[in-house]
Design goal:
The complex is a heterodimer of chains A (504) and B (539). With 504 residues, chain A is mainly alpha-helical. Chain A has one domain (3-500). Helix content of chain A is 74%, strand content 3%. In chain A, 62% of the residues are buried. By secondary structure, chain B is mainly alpha-helical. Helices cover 71% and strands 3% of the residues of chain B. Chain B has helices at residues 5-10, 12-30, 37-65, 106-125, 135-154, 158-176, 183-216, 228-240, 246-264, 273-280, 283-308, 312-315, 328-348, 354-369, 378-409, 414-417, 420-423, 425-439, 445-459, 463-489, 502-520, 523-536; strands at residues 69-74, 77-82, 95-97, 102-104. Chain B has a two-stranded antiparallel sheet with strand order 1-2. In chain B, strands 3-4 form a two-stranded antiparallel ribbon. In chain B, a hairpin with a 2-residue loop joins strand 1 and strand 2. The two termini of chain B are 29 Å apart. Classes of the chains: A mainly alpha (504), B mainly alpha (539). The A-B interface holds A 33, 81-85, 121, 124, 146, 149-150, 153-154, 157, 160-161, 164-165, 172, 176, 179-180, 183-184, 187-188, 190-191, 194-195, 197-198 and B 421-422, 425, 436, 441-443, 447, 451-452, 454-455, 458-459, 463, 466-467, 470-471, 473-474, 477-478, 481, 484-485, 488-489, 522-523, 526, 530.
Amino acid sequence: MHLIESLPAGIPYLSLIWLVPLLGALVIMFLPKEQKQAMRIISAVVATISFGLGLLVFFAYDPNAAGYMGTKMQFVEKLDWVPQLGMSYLVGADGISLPLIVLNGLVIFTGTFISWNIEDRVKEYFVLLLLLVVGVYGVFMALDLFLMFVFYELAVLPMYLLIGIWGSTRKEYGAMKLTIYLMVGSAALMIGMVAIYVVGGTFNMVELSQRVFSLEFQKIFFLPVFVGFAVLAGMFPFHTWSPTGHVAAPTAVSMLHAGVLMKLGAYGALRAALWLMPNGAQFWLPGIAVMTLMNVVYGASIAMVQKDFKYVIGYSSVSHMGLVMLALASMNETALNGAVMQMFAHGVMTALFFAVVGRMVYERTHTRQLPELGGLMKVMPFAFVVFIIASLSSMGMPGTAGFMAEFTIFTGVMNQYPLVAVVAALSIPITAAYVLRVGYMAFMGEVKDPHYHDLPPLTWQEKFSGTVLAIVVIGVGLFPSIIMDYIATGVQPIAQRMIDLAGR
Amino acid sequence: MNFQIADFTRLIPEFLILAIAALVLLGDVLTRWSKGKESLAERTGEAIAMTLMGLGLAFVMVLIQGGFFSWVQIGDWKFYNFSIFQNLRTSGLDGSILGGAFVVDPLTHIGRLIFIGAAFVTVVLTGKAKPSNNPAEFYALILFATLGMIFMTAGGELIMIYLGVELTSIPLYVLAGYFRRDPVSTEAGAKYYIFGALSSAILLFGMSLLLGLTLMNGQTMNATPTSLSSVKTAVELAFANPEGPSQGVAILGLLFILAGMAYKVAIVPFHAWSPDVYQGAPTSMTAFISTASKTAGFFLLYRVLVTSFDAPSIMGTAAIGVPTSFGGWTSLVAILASVTMLVGNLAALPQTNAKRMLAYSSIAQAGFLMLGLVGTQRDSSVSFLMYLVAYTVTNLVAFGILAVVEDNVGGTDFSNLNGLGRRSPGLTLLLTVAVLSLAGIPPLSGFFVKFYVFIAAWQEGAKWLVIFAVSNTVISLYYYLRFLKAVYFAPAETEEPIKVGFGPGIVMTALTLLIFGLGIVPTWLYGVLEQATIRIGAR
């Protein structure tokens, strides 16, 4: 008997996952503002509960069972919302969304602990952080295009305030740039959604995926939907908001932003664009594959020359997300598997990076300029260890999560566009170079500033978060099948539909 | 044709407002009549109390008449059920009265609710304003204007419509210039008056052309020549014979009416008066003018266009391309909509005064709203009306918060908003919600209605307009975010908390909940509005 059958029925598991943080946000909103510790604890508790629920659903999911309307969707909940316009509250989870739900739970779980030292306007901070998380959860489980869009915007907007209030380095500029870019993306998306609704008559993505749009329609409207989401995934030439935003954001927000928010883009592109309009994808994606090379190689090269520690990680995200987009553009099953795997792997790894850079290093040294850092290994060995673990994953070292992901991606891309794969592979040595470069500059050598010896030691919250993330990076690297099996069952129908409809 | 005694019951809300207005004026004389400070405060309080009671009573009356209350039979028991969430009943006190001059239908009921509600909020907001010379005048004028708006919405013939327009405008001119010693307010009043008079003349000229047309066509035997249905017949006759001279007259009449109303609702290129008036008028009055008066204008426009000009040959289409061709009044509306939102948005960008920026934002919102007017199919009409409801609620909150801030801080520049997030988190939250709703961020009502008008306009074929409008939302986001920047990012000059009065606090909170409600559960408005569009004859 599979775990799903032993769970009590009638409980809206998926809805609970996002309702719990929302409830937490509401509770925090009504606390008096002096109760800072209570707010942190509530935030940690709801993050833990939703993470736990996510894990529960993850392990209860039965990859072999059939789900909602012939798809693999399980835990489906459906409520009419605006029946006159074919909108419904429809959530469900399959092998693609489940790892991402868990990822989001993991990042907010660790992110809350990383945010423990926020002292300024604690209340607003945790409320916004939890709202952001609600939005992200919602996108990963929504099966209704409109619902997905609502959650998507809910995930984007708190970023503006989070960066603008608690950020550093040119925070207002970064916040405004990020919001405007993402809203341009969602504007494109909105046009696509309106068009899809008017032709399809519903926003239910499962229903929409079971009808075939005309070739002409797909060719026109694939682009706005795909690009709308791809902006959030940091696709060239719409990527510049991402490093700026990463750098300006407070640590936990960087973690969420690079760790899960950018995955929203890739996930949405896969779910809404590739699933619903496969012919449009076949028309546009070869061109887009070439564009993503810019992300992969150029992003990595830019990371190489940065002086700001956080900018290095920011551009490495551009490069790694470029790999995801490249894999999506390759459209075959292997590549898509790799794309989802990379989303997960990069999410954990980059969250770890930002935890180290933003919290452990910057909050103590108050500088992120690489020439001013140095020798930190002697001062904070723990930070160095987890940083190296994240670096290894970033380089795609076997035994870490990144290896499995990149290997699968390159295999898939090789089948589709061999030449592109060769060029993209250039990013591997470049990545190794810049990661080792920053690792060397920040951690090795002599201690640059004598004050560094007096830095306060790492707190247990920081160590805890770092350890959890590092364990996941290595654990998934050693046992990739934990999530690879799920991903394969989720990706298979999309890839199959791509093949079925090819050559129309 | 004659006034029947049965008509009286259908006009109860209007009579009630009229009576209260008279009572407010009379009561002022009977209260301690002096210019002393205490006496003025007492007179103000009395006028406010009476106005609020009257408006509240009228509101409940409309709820009852509109069928929002109904009997529910369960077994042997009958319950009085309050069902604002349900559709309007089609029975009840509906009908055209006074020979068709005053139409009581769901649209009128909705209009009454909006105007009376907006007037109520406005009066609550004035609570902290300094008592002026003769406070009762102020409140009586608000009541008269409210009455005029109802006539605008309910008018079924041209003369009633015109009277409604004037009855709305003239009190508003006075109210906009109410701070006589403040040159900005005086300028607002004067400007509003001059522009308003001009637009009334244009409107009247258009009406006279249409009246000429109906008389020329001899449609006077059984119907009032000025009624909208006579106009419809005459216009369609004129269009049936494209070679004849009367088609030109019909088009001119329509254009003049459009232009005249475009002034009233501040559509580009007839918008120039509105930023100055909005900025100069007392902030509570700005809230009233920018919501209720604009909504009334759009209701009027909607009723006239859908009742009299809905023949396909006159409507044309806003779609570009084959087989349809661009033309008719819908295409004109589409062009006006695009220009309005663009100009409103671009002009809002460099503003440094929050009130003035909201004025330009209101212009831009009118542009988005008109996407629902590029056709008369069900979705277009419903989305159009829903947009107006959402816009009214949201703008009332936005201007209402500014009014509270102005009372406490003394200005409405962005610098006055700086650090509001620390000084009054609650107020700031409400302002944030309102501004984000205007910007169209889910799950707020502003998002849903915007999305809905996009769908509607796309269905009508105006795809270019939808794409243009969507791009405009991005521009608008930039200046709406400036509010958040001021209240959250900028440091406060003082940390001194802002005191929000009990009345404004409650009303603003309730309206903010409504913003959420309309966004998350838009269906409960859908039924009412659909009923309204069906009754008015939208297809």
